[in-house]
Q: What sequence folds into this?
């Protein structure tokens, strides 16, 4: 965790809800297989608070072995790119055009074939986004192996809401990207008079065609950042 988050995180860690959550997690990690590893649970907060320009809110970590790495939607470079991230890459391709132009030139059929993203697209590691000031935050930061949503309702939602409130109040001109019902429910926590809020359906294959595709969050984010004098993100 970056030192810039120390004051906020220490305050949260001392609250009763987080102490109950910590007790729950200690038992879970001792008795079950939990993702991500303990060392990566707060990896999103390695990004300097003052450098954050964009907040992307996910749901909970990937629940399959080797996938969760503490950054929402991201997987280690060695892992197969998950379907939701494949769809994110498709939207980048559609939205920004030139991003994967070389892939289309090489073989146009590959650009829309999820099975080939593992071999031809960039890896699923989104650390370069975090390095540019994108906070990749899940609504729930841990999960039991093979049981999606298993750590919901244990206190993480309160923590995430407090992070969003804090960022909204303490910073100016951030972009909050809310994908899916869980993320969009946090919209009321954000001061839209000084931040840009972009919301749509989740990029999951179950919902991407219900409003995620065509929402153009990446160009809209960069246009806004440029309009307020900030460096756009290289997606």
A:
């Amino acid at each position: 965790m970056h030192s810039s988050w120390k004051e906020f995180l220490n305050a949260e860690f001392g609250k009763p809800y987080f102490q109950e959550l910590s007790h729950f997690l200690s038992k879970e990690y001792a008795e079950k297989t939990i993702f991500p590893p303990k060392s990566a649970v707060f990896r999103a907060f390695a990004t300097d608070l003052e450098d954050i320009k964009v907040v992307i809110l996910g749901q909970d970590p990937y629940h399959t072995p080797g996938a969760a790495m503490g950054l929402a939607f991201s997987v280690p470079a060695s892992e197969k790119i998950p379907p939701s991230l494949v769809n994110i890459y498709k939207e980048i391709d559609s939205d920004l055009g030139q991003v994967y132009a070389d892939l289309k030139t090489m073989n146009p059929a590959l650009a829309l074939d999820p099975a080939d993203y593992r071999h031809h697209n960039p890896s699923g590691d989104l650390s370069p986004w975090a390095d540019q000031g994108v906070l990749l935050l899940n609504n729930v930061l841990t999960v039991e192996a093979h049981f999606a949503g298993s750590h919901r309702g244990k206190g993480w939602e309160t923590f995430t809401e407090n992070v969003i409130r804090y960022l909204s109040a303490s910073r100016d001109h951030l972009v909050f990207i809310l994908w899916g019902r869980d993320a969009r429910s946090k919209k009321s926590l954000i001061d839209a008079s000084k931040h840009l809020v972009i919301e749509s359906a989740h990029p999951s294959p179950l919902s991407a065609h219900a409003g995620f595709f065509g929402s153009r969050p990446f160009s809209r984010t960069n246009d806004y950042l440029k309009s307020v004098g900030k460096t756009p993100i290289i997606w």
